[in-house]
Structures are given as structure tokens and as C-alpha cells.
């Protein structure tokens, strides 16, 4: 028994158990100094429950900040173990113990009071270099308690100033007991002053325990510079914010009119991302945030911060004041077309003393700066001194060069570059025209860049903008073929070409065809013309100084073609359009409603002879033969000579006829009558013969017909009718009134 009592006494002496009480407030925090230094790394934090002790932190390694939810153990600058419990609630009340080393234990009785004194957290934003002032309100119970300000850092909570010290270089603390306020002033602010400040009250001077009644989040805004930026409504604007000291830190842009509550940031680094009406790119290699306004509006005007997050509570930014102007002349929209492999010149106007910026619009409407040996720039002053004209030339044009380009002015500042883009250029590629005859087949070939090989592709005829596009068939995808009616689409990804084949060509197939790939929207990058030559040709024969009118078919195309060439393909590519003809003898009139335009040529010359091609996409072949005037005179002489000869022959024939008529008139009337009687007798005999031989009726009835008519000639009509009752019955009728023929008419009716 004595041995047990001695052992228990020794244990109590050696254990050195330290006990004290701490009071906190609901919504606030407590900071407790255990008063013990760490000598090992086997510390723990436990809370007593009805069944024993609940371990909150079961291991504490020296010189580390251990955060388990709302409970934190750390070492202060004196190497004392500190316990910090934030956001207290009534359930936190109870008995805690901290195991130090071996059997040494610190026991703490925590009493959490429910009240409204300590649930206030405030945020203060102050620009770097200025003065930050914030107040912490405390309750009536704390008027005579010492006040203290702590700052929460990465792995410690450091005391900054207290009411005993009152002033510490840039920090000052004033206790206004009549207002129950402690006022903290920090001046001048530095970027490192940002962070979380804790306003505390010393509640146990023996245990150095503090009740934290207020939390203040102090954000330091370091304004590096200020720039004025301007853009044109409807145009594009690129802003580059430079932060070379913080290349990998998160970057953002926000508008001050809404308190920068909506901060736009890329979210990822090294990739363009859309955020509302802007696109952002965080270039970590250069430490640059690129902000691209895809289409400026009047509502975009205002003051912005283009900043970088230095720490959780410190930011560095450039202030930019954006103004958006409305100019009816801007943005300009220009369309340029060039054959593959050719060269194109693009001009735009920019203000004097500004660098030119030329870029190509990529996916998501981002405009990427053009850096290529194929691009050369030539600049010269315009008529107005405040502007200059810049010409950008792109040589050896390839499929990759097709698309939308922007041209504008670039302005540089110390930490900011902005580019106002006000001229939009649509660069289209042209394939040589496809010329085929009516009824044949035609292939429309669409080469594309390798970056589009997995994208859907389509063929479109006529107007092919996003709003009114009229695709000929469903889109063709990689290594697939689609067929609709007479149209077949095939994609050869190995060759980088997709082809549209149309069979049985008709006039309706003629027109302008666009090749398109599907990105965010349909990109129409290349076009060609399908020319259908009609099988029906027009042949015209004219003489010098004549006029001629030639009608040609069209489908309301802007440019109509009338040219002279041996082949239609030569005419389409290198022919002369009506607008470029400088000969006053040529003119045209357009009847759009009928789909026809007329070419008029006056004062024809022999050299105008040849083959002409007339139309737009529907071509008619015209053969024009112009002869000289002497050929016309020779032809007239021949015609007149033939007419004279014919007249002479006619006169001679008429004279002969009259002479024969007079000679016949000498015959006597008696002779005529005799001839008539003979004729009648002959007819009667013939009747009898014909009844026995019907095949001879016609021949016999014409025997002995009178050949010389006279005025007293008696005409007769003889009809034979065969009756079943009497096969030999016949009727003969004479008429002196019927004088229709020089000869008698005999009819035999069966």
C-alpha cells in the first residue's frame, strides 16, 4: 500500500498537468497558448466525450501547421504549442487536452457563449501605397480588456500590435472605449500587407488566451499603370496585359462599374477560352493575359482592371479606360478572291504613328497574329495626314490561307498593348472553272488543309452564308461517301480532297459552288464556277455596217460574260466582261425578270466574225459571220439577173399561149357539134363495152374528147350507176349551164 501511494505521488509530480479555462463567443474564434514548448513529434489534441476522449489530431510534427477542419495546432515564434479554433459554436464547449511529450498534458476548459458580438467578417480593399483603416467592434464586457491584432499567415498566426504597444512602425491601434471600437491603421500599404487580420481580446492573461471577435480580409490592389483604350463599335479589340514578374500566377479582367464582382479568367493556361462576350488566353511563357472582344458594343465601354493574383489577398493590375466609338465608315468589310498559288494584295487604313496589326481569325473568332515569310507590308501616306494606307501582300496562296482576316492599329504602353481591328477581309480561294456540255458529268474538286481532315465537309450552290446557305446534300465526313440524286460527295483524306460529282448536267446545274468545312460555323473557303454549254448553237450571218442583237441567258449574276474565244474555258477565265468593253459599238440591256440580257453590236466589221460565248453560267455558242459590202452587191446583181430572166421567160410563154388560142378559134361551130355527136356515140359504145369489161371504162370514156374548145361548146356530164335490178341500166344527163371544164366528166359508180 505504501509502495502504491509513493508511485501515485511520483506520477502526479512528474506528469505536470496544466489546467485553465477559456471563454469564447459563438461565431468567433479562440487562440490559446499552451505555455509548453515542443520537445518531440508525438503531440495530440483530444476532446472529452461521455465515453472517454475523442482524438481530433493524433500526431503533430514539429515546425508544421496542422489543420484539421476548424482546429489548428502550430508553433509560434517562441516555439510554444498554440491551439486555434475558428468559427466557434455551442457544441464546441467542453474539456480539451493537448498531449505535449511523454506524459505532459495541458487541459483546457472551453466555454462558448452564444451572442452576436463575434460573427462579423468584413472585407477591405485598398490600393497599394495608400492607407488602410478598419474598425473592430467589441462588447461591453471587453471594455477594460487588452486588445490585440493578429495576422494569419501561411503556417502561423503572428501578433502585429496591441494596445500596450499602440504603434509599431506602419501599424497603429486605437481603443475607443466610448464607442467600443478598436481602430487599426496601416500606412503606407505594401503588397505584402494583404491577408486575414484577427481582432482579439485578452481573456486570460495567465494563459495568454485570446477571444477573436472580428475577422478582417484586407485585399491590396497594386495599380501598376493606367491606359486609355478605344475601339470601334462592331469591330474587334485585342488587349494584352503584361505581368512578367508573375508569369504562372492566375490572371483576370473585370469591370469596376460592378465592383469587379464578375472576374473573367481563362480558367486554364495556354489555351483560348470563351467567357461571355470575350475570349481569354493566359500565356504563361511570356506572362501575358490576352483579352479579345469578339464584337465591341457601346455597353462594353467603361473602366476595367486587367490584373494578376499575386497572393490570395494581393493583386497587381493595370487600369484601362475603354471608350467605344460609332463610325459609319467602320468596321469596313472587304472580300478578296485569289486563285490557288497566286498572290493577293490587301489594303487598309490605320492612324498615323500606330503600328499595323494584321491577323487571321481562327476558331471561336480569335484573331491570331500573322507571322509568315509569305506576308510583306508596304505602307504609304494617304491624302489625309492623320491616316496612312497599308498594303499587305500574301504570295503563293494555299488552302490554309483562306478565311477571315482583320487589319488595324496597334498601340503599346508600358504594361499594356491594345489592338483595334476595324477592317475585315474575307479571303476566298478560286479553283479554275469547270466547263462541261449539257448532258455530260462534272466534278467539283475541293482541296483542304490537313487540319480539317476530321471535320465534316459540304458542297453548297449559290448563296452560302450561315443564315441562307443551301447545301446540295448532307455533309460528307472522313472516309465516307454520300449520294443524293445526281450528286455524289466523296472525301479522300489521304489526298486532302473532297469531290462533288454531278451527272446528266442541265441548265439548272450551272452556277457558283462553294466548298465548306464545319468548324464552330460553316466556313466557306473556296469556290468555283460550273459552266454548262448548251447544245443548241446560234448562227448569225451579217454584212459590214449592219447591226445585230444577241440574247444571252443568265441567273442574275453580278458579272455577265460576252467574249470571243475558240474555247469556252478560255472565255470564262480570260474573257472580257461587258463592264470592261471599251468599244462604243457594243452595248447591252438587262432584263432580269426574264433571265435574259441582250448584247447589241452596231456598225459590224469583217473582223467581228468568229465564235462568241454568251451568258453567265449558262453559255450559248454564237457563230457570227460578217461579210463585206461588195459581197452584198454581187449577190444583188445575181438576184436581179435571175428576176429579169424569169420575166422574159414568162413573157415569151404568154405570147405563145395567145397565138395558139387564136388558131383554135378558127374552127367552125358545125365541126364542134359534129365532134360532140361523135363523142356522145363513142361514149354510148364505150358504155356497152364497159359493162362487159369494167377495167376499160375509164380509158374508153375519154376517147375522142374534144381538144379545141369554142364559145358554143356544149359541156356534158355522164354518170354510170350500176343497179342490182338491171346491170345494163344507165342514165345520161346533158346540161348547157354547167361550164366548169373543157372536157366531159364521166363517173362510174359501183
Automatic annotation (TrEMBL):
Top-rank lineage group of the source organism: Eukaryota
GO annotation, cellular component aspect: plasma membrane
Domain Ig-like per the UniProt entry, residue ranges: 254-325
Subcellular locations according to the entry: Membrane
Transmembrane segments: 634-657
Gene3D superfamilies xref list: Immunoglobulins
PANTHER family, alphabetized: CMRF35-LIKE MOLECULE 3-RELATED, POLYMERIC-IMMUNOGLOBULIN RECEPTOR
The name this protein goes by in its record: Ig-like domain-containing protein
Species of the source: Cyprinus carpio carpio
Amino acid at each position: 500500500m505504501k509502495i502504491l501511494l509513493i508511485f501515485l505521488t511520483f506520477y502526479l509530480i512528474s506528469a505536470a498537468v496544466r489546467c485553465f479555462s477559456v471563454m469564447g463567443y459563438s461565431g468567433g474564434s479562440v487562440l490559446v497558448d499552451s505555455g509548453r514548448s515542443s520537445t518531440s513529434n508525438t503531440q495530440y489534441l483530444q476532446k472529452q466525450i461521455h465515453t472517454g476522449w475523442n482524438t481530433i489530431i493524433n500526431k503533430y510534427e514539429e515546425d508544421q501547421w496542422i489543420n484539421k477542419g476548424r482546429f489548428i495546432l502550430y508553433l509560434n515564434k517562441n516555439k510554444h504549442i498554440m491551439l486555434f479554433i475558428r468559427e466557434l459554436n455551442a457544441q464546441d464547449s467542453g474539456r480539451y487536452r493537448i498531449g505535449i511529450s511523454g506524459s505532459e498534458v495541458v487541459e483546457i476548459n472551453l466555454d462558448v457563449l452564444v451572442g452576436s458580438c463575434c460573427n462579423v467578417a468584413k472585407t477591405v480593399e485598398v490600393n497599394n501605397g495608400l492607407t488602410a483603416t478598419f474598425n473592430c467592434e467589441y462588447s461591453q464586457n471587453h471594455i477594460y480588456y487588452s486588445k490585440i491584432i493578429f495576422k494569419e499567415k501561411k503556417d502561423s498566426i503572428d501578433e502585429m500590435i496591441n494596445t500596450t504597444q499602440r504603434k509599431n512602425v506602419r501599424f497603429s491601434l486605437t481603443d475607443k472605449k466610448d464607442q467600443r471600437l478598436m481602430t487599426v491603421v496601416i500606412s503606407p500599404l505594401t503588397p505584402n500587407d494583404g491577408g486575414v487580420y484577427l481582432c482579439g481580446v485578452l481573456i486570460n492573461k495567465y494563459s495568454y488566451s485570446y477571444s477573436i471577435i472580428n475577422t478582417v480580409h484586407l485585399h491590396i490592389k497594386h495599380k501598376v499603370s493606367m491606359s486609355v483604350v478605344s475601339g470601334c463599335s462592331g469591330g474587334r479589340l485585342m488587349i494584352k496585359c503584361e505581368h512578367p514578374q508573375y508569369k504562372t500566377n492566375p490572371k483576370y479582367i473585370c469591370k469596376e462599374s460592378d465592383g469587379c464582382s464578375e472576374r473573367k479568367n481563362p480558367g486554364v493556361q495556354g489555351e483560348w477560352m470563351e467567357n461571355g462576350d470575350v475570349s481569354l488566353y493566359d500565356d504563361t511563357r511570356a506572362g501575358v493575359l490576352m483579352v479579345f472582344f469578339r464584337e465591341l458594343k457601346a455597353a462594353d465601354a467603361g473602366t476595367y482592371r486587367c490584373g494578376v493574383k499575386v497572393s490570395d489577398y494581393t493583386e497587381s493590375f493595370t487600369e484601362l479606360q475603354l471608350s467605344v466609338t460609332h463610325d459609319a465608315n467602320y468596321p469596313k468589310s472587304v472580300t478578296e478572291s485569289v486563285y490557288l498559288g497566286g498572290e493577293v494584295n490587301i489594303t487598309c487604313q490605320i492612324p498615323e504613328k500606330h503600328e499595323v496589326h494584321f491577323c487571321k481569325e481562327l476558331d471561336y473568332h480569335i484573331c491570331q497574329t500573322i507571322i509568315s515569310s509569305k506576308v510583306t507590308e508596304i505602307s504609304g501616306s494617304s491624302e489625309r495626314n492623320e491616316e496612312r494606307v497599308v498594303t499587305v501582300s500574301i504570295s503563293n496562296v494555299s488552302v490554309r490561307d483562306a478565311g477571315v482576316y482583320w487589319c488595324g492599329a496597334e498601340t503599346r504602353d508600358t504594361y499594356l498593348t491594345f489592338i483595334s481591328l476595324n477592317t475585315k477581309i474575307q479571303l476566298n480561294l478560286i479553283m479554275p472553272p469547270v466547263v462541261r456540255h449539257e448532258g455530260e458529268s462534272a466534278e467539283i474538286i475541293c482541296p483542304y488543309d490537313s487540319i480539317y481532315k476530321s471535320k465534316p465537309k459540304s458542297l453548297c450552290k449559290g448563296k452560302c452564308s450561315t443564315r441562307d446557305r443551301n447545301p446540295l446534300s448532307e455533309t460528307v465526313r472522313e472516309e465516307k461517301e454520300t449520294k443524293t440524286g445526281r450528286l455524289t460527295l466523296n472525301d479522300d483524306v489521304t489526298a486532302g480532297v473532297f469531290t462533288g460529282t454531278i451527272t446528266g448536267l442541265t441548265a439548272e446545274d450551272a452556277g457558283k459552288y462553294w466548298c465548306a468545312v464545319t468548324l464552330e460555323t460553316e466556313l466557306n473557303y473556296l469556290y468555283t464556277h460550273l459552266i454548262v454549254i448548251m447544245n443548241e448553237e446560234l448562227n448569225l450571218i451579217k454584212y459590214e455596217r449592219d447591226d445585230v442583237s444577241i440574247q444571252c441567258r443568265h441567273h442574275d449574276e453580278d458579272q455577265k460574260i460576252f467574249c470571243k474565244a475558240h474555247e469556252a474555258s478560255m472565255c470564262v477565265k480570260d474573257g472580257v466582261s461587258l463592264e470592261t468593253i471599251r468599244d462604243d459599238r457594243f452595248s447591252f440591256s438587262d432584263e432580269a425578270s426574264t433571265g435574259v440580257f441582250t448584247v447589241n453590236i452596231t456598225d459590224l466589221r469583217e473582223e467581228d466574225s468568229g465564235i462568241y460565248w454568251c451568258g453567265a453560267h449558262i453559255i450559248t455558242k454564237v457563230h457570227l459571220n460578217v461579210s463585206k459590202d461588195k459581197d452584198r452587191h454581187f449577190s444583188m446583181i445575181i438576184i436581179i439577173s435571175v428576176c429579169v430572166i424569169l420575166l422574159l421567160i414568162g413573157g415569151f410563154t404568154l405570147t405563145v399561149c395567145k397565138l395558139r388560142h387564136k388558131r383554135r378559134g378558127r374552127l367552125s361551130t358545125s365541126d364542134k357539134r359534129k365532134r360532140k355527136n361523135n363523142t356522145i356515140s363513142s361514149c354510148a359504145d364505150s358504155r356497152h363495152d364497159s359493162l362487159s369489161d369494167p377495167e376499160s371504162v375509164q380509158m374508153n370514156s375519154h376517147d375522142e374528147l374534144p381538144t379545141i374548145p369554142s364559145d358554143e361548146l356544149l359541156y356534158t356530164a355522164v354518170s354510170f350507176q350500176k343497179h342490182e335490178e338491171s346491170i345494163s341500166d344507165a342514165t345520161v344527163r346533158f346540161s348547157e349551164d354547167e361550164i366548169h371544164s373543157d372536157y366531159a366528166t364521166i363517173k362510174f359508180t359501183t
